[in-house]
Amino acid sequence: MQKIALILILIFCLSSCKSRKSTISKSDRTKTESIKNSNNVSSNESSAIANKIIDYAKKFDGVKYKYGGDTKKGMDCSGLVTTSFKSENILLPRSTSELVLSGDWIDIKHVQRGDLLFFATSKNNRKVNHVAIVTDAKADYVEFIHATTSAGVIVSNLAERYWYFAFVQARRIL
């Protein structure tokens, strides 16, 4: 019986990419909005910052998945996002459930480098549980870096069937 309980707990931990579950307060939203407003920069500056964030995230390419991780020893999806943005002094909430409330919603047709993509990867559930950073965006082509439980930190394409059907929304932080 203990083995079954241990296996169920292990499966539960590995099936989600979220590092923790918590609610976001009004002050947290205000903090995120003030960060965004204080970073009210031109489009060129925004692109330069996005490039630096993406370059930093790519340093973790191949790092194994670790629930709650945010170092080269192990990384989860929200850890990759928050660590990469933090490299440019942009502080974001640590969990995917809080990140999905940050920034501004944008249509997938208008995504740019540095935008965030959110996915629902659980079967029969559209609740967001995975986040990625857009690394390249052209007409009908969106590439992103993220941390997966199966392969660690990798670059994927939204045209891949799995990610296409799991996609929920895109948000702009910069």
List the uncertain runs.
Answer: 10-16, 18-39
What average pLDDT do the residues reach?
84
Q: Largest beta sheet: what is the strand line-up? A: 3-8-4-5-6-7
Give the strand content: 15-25%
Total helices: the number is 6
Write the element-wise H/E pattern from the N-terminal end onward.
HHHEEHHEEEEEHE
Q: How many domains would you count in the coordinates? A: 1
Q: Which percent bin holds the helix content?
A: 25-40%
Largest sheet: 6 strands, antiparallel
Could you name the CATH topology? endopeptidase fold (from Nostoc punctiforme)
Q: Please tell me how large the radius of gyration is.
A: 16 Å
- Would you report the number of β strands? 8
Our measurement of the CA-to-CA distance between the termini, rounded to an integer number of angstroms, reads: 50 Å
CATH class wording: Alpha Beta
Structural class: alpha+beta
Q: What coarse outline follows from CA principal-axis ratios?
A: globular
